[in-house]
């Protein structure tokens, strides 16, 4: 037994000796390049992969074969540029860089090198808190980062952390299919629309711009390829013009912000004959320009609208404006900012124009405490004309309804009862109560609806448990998961 142990020890000693410094390294170095690349891809960052070049001459060239580089957290911009500019480095299918509170000169140092190397996806996230006021924004603006033309990139995702960004005045993004821009301060001389329009982005399918500044005057996009556009929270934009013959999905959320100093209305002029899904959440122009847009279509697969009730309503016309026609819609989501007002009459006005509806979703939102939102001022016109409670309406395709943040008010009971009458083939109604509603109040609401639904309709009520941050199914007395 002792002799056997001595043999094993001798073999270990022999295997541990070698010119390259160890059996582990020798065996790894003997692996083919593709396996070594897989090993390096598991390292945390590109910098760690580069450091493996110190192992031996065999390893010195392996990192350059990586198809993607990730800098998280990123070193100094000049260090990133040095890695990207290495002469032995191959083309990259992905570059990912994460910084925290970076200055413009840091991003400007490596972006041109990335444009030369990249043949795929670029992701840059600069994590930074936004300034608290417009004056602070201007003070902290600094120099703009010049974005080079990424001729071979397929997607670009930039979260600039409110750094200034100047778009390239020349060049074609020949392979770009998607671009997402967040927390950007756009700087002249080139406008966003000039870059993302045809022919500079001939293959662009998806455009997203969120929480950004500097698009003050006009966004004019003329694209033969765009299929999806999402615009959200753009400060002080005045005019949006889209000429997008193949656009299928459009989302416009609070893009006309901070225009209170100027009484003139912003303008939205959109040509999108193949649009299938529209989300329009823009309080300032919802009645005029959104309706003009809707009138262009005979049918939409889905539509998201926000109904806004002022706290003091003194004009019946202001409730629904000039809504006289809607396209045929399969899925409708209504967000109702009702400030305690009844929403039944306005909702009826919309639903009688949506007789092909399959699914309906309501989101009920109101500011303030529950008591303040339970009633509206005496003599309020929010429930007029009252004939909506007796007029005939047949929604003989509507099979599913969801209502969020129900508060148990009497006008809500009335509306749900009418839904049971209108929706002749309704299969499921799901109601989620506002987190501030007590269980006793919710059960009172359930009892008020008892006997109103059809036997084939499943009705479910959900409560929110603040202590566990979760929802649970509320079974009304005498019933299972519905009526």
Quick description:
InterPro entries: F-box-like_dom_sf (IPR036047), F-box_dom (IPR001810), FBL15-like (IPR055312), LRR_dom_sf (IPR032675), LRR_FXL15/At3g58940/PEG3-like (IPR055411). Residues 149-284 form the F-box/LRR-repeat protein 15/At3g58940/PEG3-like LRR domain. The chain is of the alpha/beta class and 483 residues long.
Structural commentary:
Residues 1-24 and 478-482 have low confidence and may be disordered. This protein has helices at 2-16, 23-29, 33-41, 46-51, 77-84, 104-117, 134-140, 192-196, 286-294, 317-320, 344-351, 370-373, 410-422, 439-449, and strands spanning 68-71, 92-100, 118-127, 144-146, 155-166, 178-187, 206-212, 219-222, 228-234, 239-243, 249-253, 267-271, 277-281, 299-308, 328-337, 359-365, 400-406, 428-433, 458-465, 470-474. The protein is an alpha/beta fold and 483 residues long. It has 14 helices and 20 strands. The strands form 2 sheets. It has a 17-stranded mixed beta sheet that branches. A 3-stranded parallel beta sheet has the order 8-10-12. Helices cover 25% and strands 29% of the residues. α5 runs parallel beside α6.
Q: Which helices and strands, and how do they pair?
A:
Elements: H1 2-16, H2 23-29, H3 33-41, H4 46-51, E1 68-71, H5 77-84, E2 92-100, H6 104-117, E3 118-127, H7 134-140, E4 144-146, E5 155-166, E6 178-187, H8 192-196, E7 206-212, E8 219-222, E9 228-234, E10 239-243, E11 249-253, E12 267-271, E13 277-281, H9 286-294, E14 299-308, H10 317-320, E15 328-337, H11 344-351, E16 359-365, H12 370-373, E17 400-406, H13 410-422, E18 428-433, H14 439-449, E19 458-465, E20 470-474
Parallel strand pairs: 1-2, 2-3, 3-5, 4-5, 5-6, 6-7, 7-9, 8-10, 9-11, 10-12, 11-13, 13-14, 14-15, 15-16, 16-17, 17-18, 18-19
Antiparallel strand pairs: 19-20
């Amino acid at each position: 037994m002792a002799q056997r142990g001595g043999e094993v020890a001798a073999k270990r000693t022999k295997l541990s000796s070698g010119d390259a410094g160890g059996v582990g390294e020798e065996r790894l170095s003997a692996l083919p390049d593709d396996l070594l690349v897989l090993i390096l891809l598991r390292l945390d960052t590109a910098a760690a992969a580069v450091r493996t070049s110190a192992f031996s001459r065999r390893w010195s060239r392996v990192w350059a074969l990586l198809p993607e580089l990730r800098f998280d957290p990123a070193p100094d911009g000049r260090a990133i540029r040095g890695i990207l500019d290495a002469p032995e480095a191959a083309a990259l299918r992905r570059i990912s860089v994460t910084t925290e509170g970076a200055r413009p000169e840091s991003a400007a140092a490596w972006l041109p090198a990335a444009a030369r190397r990249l043949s795929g996806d670029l992701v840059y996230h600069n994590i930074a808190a936004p300034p608290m006021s417009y004056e602070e924004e201007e003070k902290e603006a600094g120099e703009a980062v010049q974005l080079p033309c990424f001729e071979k990139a397929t997607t670009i995702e930039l979260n600039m952390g409110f750094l200034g960004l100047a778009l390239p005045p020349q060049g074609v993004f020949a392979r770009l299919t998607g671009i997402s821009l967040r927390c950007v301060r756009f700087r002249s001389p080139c406008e966003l629309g000039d870059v993302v329009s045809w022919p500079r982005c001939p293959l662009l399918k998806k455009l997203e711009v969120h929480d950004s500044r500097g698009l003050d005057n006009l966004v004019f996009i003329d694209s033969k390829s765009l299929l999806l556009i999402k615009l959200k929270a753009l400060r002080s934009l005045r005019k949006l013009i889209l000429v997008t013959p193949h656009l299928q999905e459009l989302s416009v959320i609070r893009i006309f912000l901070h225009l209170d100093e100027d009484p003139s209305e912003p303008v939205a002029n959109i040509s999108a004959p193949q649009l299938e899904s529209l989300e329009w959440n823009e309080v300032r122009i919802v009645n005029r320009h959104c309706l003009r847009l809707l009138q262009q279509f005979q049918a939409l697969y889905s539509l998201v609208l926000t109904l806004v009730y002022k706290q003091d309503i003194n004009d019946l016309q202001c409730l629904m404006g000039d809504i006289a026609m809607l396209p045929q819609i399969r899925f409708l989501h209504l967000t109702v900012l009702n400030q305690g007002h009844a929403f039944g009459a306005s909702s009826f006005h919309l639903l009688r124009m949506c007789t092909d509806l399959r699914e309906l979703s309501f989101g009920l939102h109101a500011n303030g405490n529950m008591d303040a939102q339970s009633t509206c001022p005496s003599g309020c016109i929010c429930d007029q004309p009252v004939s909506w409670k007796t007029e005939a309406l047949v929604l003989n395709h509507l099979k599913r309804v969801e209502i969020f943040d129900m508060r148990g008010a009497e006008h809500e009971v009335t509306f749900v009862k009418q839904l049971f009458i209108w929706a002749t083939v309704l299969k499921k109604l799901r109601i989620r109560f506002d987190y501030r509603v007590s269980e006793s109040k919710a059960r009172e609401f359930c009892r008020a609806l008892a006997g109103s639904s059809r036997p084939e309709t499943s009705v479910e009520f959900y409560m929110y448990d603040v202590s566990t941050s979760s929802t649970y199914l509320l079974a009304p007395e005498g019933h299972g998961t519905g009526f």
